[in-house]
Design goal:
Distance between the termini: 49 Å
CATH architecture of one domain: Orthogonal Bundle
Shape: globular
Largest sheet: 2 strands, antiparallel
CATH class of one domain: Mainly Alpha
CATH superfamily of one domain: Winged helix-like DNA-binding domain superfamily/Winged helix DNA-binding domain
Structural class: mainly alpha
Number of strands: 2
Helix content: 40-55%
CATH topology of one domain: Arc Repressor Mutant, subunit A
Number of helices: 5
Length: about 100
């Protein structure tokens, strides 16, 4: 085991306050990304359980996709991750950027 693994937490707090470990994260073959699963991956990255690159590799995500999940949570919370609301939130933030 190298120093990087020993410096990482074994458990982080998930989006709903539950403990998350690598074993309780969504499986690597996840194909249906519901809000909770997206939020769990973001919490794992933000908490240091996974690196950005590890999360992208493990789940087959692009850097842009994972970064957009992080931005959505920062801006709108878990509701921002809902596929039906992404366009709405994007338009709201674009308008704010134009008029601020």
């Amino acid at each position: 085991m190298d120093d990087v693994d020993t410096a990482r937490p074994a458990v982080v707090t998930g989006p709903l306050g539950e403990p998350l470990s690598k074993d309780t994260l969504p499986p690597p073959n996840t194909s249906r990304w519901v809000v909770r699963r997206k939020a769990e991956v973001v919490a794992a990255v933000n908490g240091g359980l996974l690196t950005f690159a590890e999360a992208c590799e493990r789940y087959g995500l692009t850097l842009e996709e994972l970064a957009s999940w992080q931005r959505s949570i920062e801006r709108e919370g878990m509701a921002g991750l809902r596929a039906t609301r992404v366009q709405h939130y994007r338009q709201v933030h674009e308008r704010r950027g134009r008029y601020s």
